Amino acid sequence: MHAPNQRGVHVSAGSNMDLPKRKRAMGTCMRLAIIDCCSSSIRFYFTSSSPFSPCRFNSPWHLAFLIHSLFFPDIPFVQQFQSRSFFSFSAIAYLSFLIDIDTALDVATMFTSSRRWIFIVSPFITLTLVYYFFLSPHSDPITLNFHGQWSPSEQEPMILEGTRPLSQSEKQNQQQISDDFFEEDRCGKLRKDMDDVFVVLKTGATEAREKVPVQLRTTLQCVPHYAVFSDYEETISGVRVYDVLQNVTESTMNEAPEFEIYHRLQEVGPEGLTDEEMGDDSNGPFGKTNNPGWKLDKWKFLPMIAGALEVQPNAKWYIFMEADTYMVWPNLVNWLAHLDHHQNYYLGSPMQIGDVLFGYGGAGIILSSRTMYHLHNYRAKHQQELEHMTSLEWAGDCALAQALKDVHVELTWAWPMMMTSRPQEIDHFSEAYGRQPWCYPAVSYHHMSPRDIEEMWRFDRGWFKSGKNALLLHGDVYRELVHNNSLAERPDWDNLSPAIIDFDPPTEPSTDACADACSQNTDCLQFSYNHEMQSCKHASTTFGGVATNGTDSGWITHRVQRLLNNFQSSCPEVQYILE
């Protein structure tokens, strides 16, 4: 991976043209008085005249400052000295002072033989300095280079005399500008770190216009190389969306029933689809089985390989995500820095259909460049066979795993770094596959709504903004995002407690009875009660949960806090999945 870089953000210096003319005149006189002391001291060294001589405008520094102030009146006083143009004016004025005949004779007679070389060499030095500064890359006198090392919140506010206090809207605008500078600086680092990574956002016409825009303005904002692949070519928020199914053979398109909606899309566009076809069908354990767009989706996985290599053939890593996937890029970059793209890598969160183990597409799939080219070359020779195999599968990520198995690339289980659910639906404390999420960096989440993505993006951005946090662990996400938003009794909320509790007569099922039963069980940390089903559930761990009408939820807060305290310092080192 590449080392971070610094990107300059240019801001114009503030103008003082609205100050009263009298104050500007007084300011100019004060400047000239200060310059006079400096120039007179120089003259005193050469001519032994009084250092407190009257203000003379034939003094080269006076002349330089006056000319520069006329040409660049918007530059603050201190920056006048720092700008290249002021130094150039000063050098030219001093050169003219040296070649003035009367002054030159006066200076020449006052020089001792040991000092006369100054009179001869000074013009050449001056011209050299002028030439150097005009070639300097810092060429704009009203341009500052900002590297994210300063922010208004860290500085005392400076109010200039004669200026009015900022209104609330102006303060908000200034804060937005500061945030934009931070984002540009942060994006500059990520763009450099991700220069050898190519990201594919897979979507479909039935969801793209709803879900892609939020990805473009949040998670993809700092990604330098990406493409959006779909089943219909269009432009969304100024970004081209590619029809990746053009890589499927014509015979398969004509034979596979899933392509019926594809043919209509090409004829009438998304506007020609019915409400049922455009609807976001509920996503069950076997996917959106009633949605024709979801059924068509399985055909995109293998063609995406050729499509990605066509757009970006020289990347080291290829990331495939979906429109409801959230990726934590700094964590991903740090993880990939521990891996070798010259090796075969197929990283994903494990799922299984029959005897096929595959990386779950919703959590994201990561392939090394070596794996990409192996698979691409294999598909080029066996496209018909692979399309027949895909027709027999109901999930495209499973078909992708079958093809990778043919080229002897096995899945690296990336759970819990790559998650199949939202942060609020994850058990951060329990163990699975021999791993516990708490100490692992969070790389991806799935089933994220546009609102979830916006919220996670703001949290992600704020977490890394201070520069103190190099990684975001699952424990950090629970503590700062999930825990802070959950621990209170909530109506119309399901905290995903799994264990059903039965009541013995004469106890009637109710929210209060469910809460009392949980408090009496020392292992119970949370409860939920569904009024329609009269169902009470408990959990010995804790979740955030989801909004659900007719369900009440609550937590035994002191027990949750005790569990949290036990985990607070349980990460002696960051854990990565490397094999």
TrEMBL record:
<dbReference type="Pfam" id="PF00024">
    <property type="entry name" value="PAN_1"/>
</dbReference>
<dbReference type="GO" id="GO:0000166">
    <property type="term" value="F:nucleotide binding"/>
</dbReference>
<dbReference type="InterPro" id="IPR026050">
    <property type="entry name" value="C1GALT1/C1GALT1_chp1"/>
</dbReference>
<comment type="similarity">
    <text>Belongs to the glycosyltransferase 31 family. Beta3-Gal-T subfamily.</text>
</comment>
<protein>
    <recommendedName>
        <fullName>N-acetylgalactosaminide beta-1,3-galactosyltransferase</fullName>
        <ecNumber>2.4.1.122</ecNumber>
    </recommendedName>
</protein>
<dbReference type="InterPro" id="IPR003609">
    <property type="entry name" value="Pan_app"/>
</dbReference>
<dbReference type="Pfam" id="PF02434">
    <property type="entry name" value="Fringe"/>
</dbReference>
<keyword id="KW-0808">Transferase</keyword>
<dbReference type="GO" id="GO:0016263">
    <property type="term" value="F:glycoprotein-N-acetylgalactosamine 3-beta-galactosyltransferase activity"/>
</dbReference>
<comment type="pathway">
    <text>Protein modification; protein glycosylation.</text>
</comment>
<dbReference type="GO" id="GO:0016020">
    <property type="term" value="C:membrane"/>
</dbReference>
<keyword id="KW-0328">Glycosyltransferase</keyword>
<keyword id="KW-1133">Transmembrane helix</keyword>
<keyword id="KW-0735">Signal-anchor</keyword>
<keyword id="KW-0547">Nucleotide-binding</keyword>
<feature type="transmembrane region" description="Helical">
    <location>
        <begin position="117"/>
        <end position="135"/>
    </location>
</feature>
<dbReference type="InterPro" id="IPR003378">
    <property type="entry name" value="Fringe-like_glycosylTrfase"/>
</dbReference>
<keyword id="KW-0812">Transmembrane</keyword>
<feature type="domain" description="Apple">
    <location>
        <begin position="509"/>
        <end position="541"/>
    </location>
</feature>
<keyword id="KW-0472">Membrane</keyword>
<feature type="domain" description="Fringe-like glycosyltransferase">
    <location>
        <begin position="312"/>
        <end position="413"/>
    </location>
</feature>
